[in-house]
Specification:
By secondary structure, the protein is mainly α. It contains three helices and no strands.
Length: 68
């Protein structure tokens, strides 16, 4: 999992704004960047999507896992 505070900050902002559909918003942004030829930007938004998924996950964390 990505551990950048900026990734999690962005993920939290998406969740505040869009709630449960935040993962779709991150994928949409990643797709837009991919279409524009920005692979690095796409990768960042895919990390944001993973962070959003992690933050929205209601299952208890596995032993030894850090929670952000």
């Amino acid at each position: 999992m990505v551990h950048s505070p900026n990734i999690y900050r962005t993920a939290r902002a998406l969740i505040r704004e869009f709630g449960e559909i935040a993962p779709a918003g991150a994928i949409l942004k990643a797709d837009q960047l991919w279409a524009a030829g920005d692979e690095a930007g796409r990768a960042v938004w895919l990390w944001v999507k993973r962070a959003v998924d992690e933050l929205l996950d209601t299952n208890p964390p596995k032993p030894g896992t850090t929670v952000h």
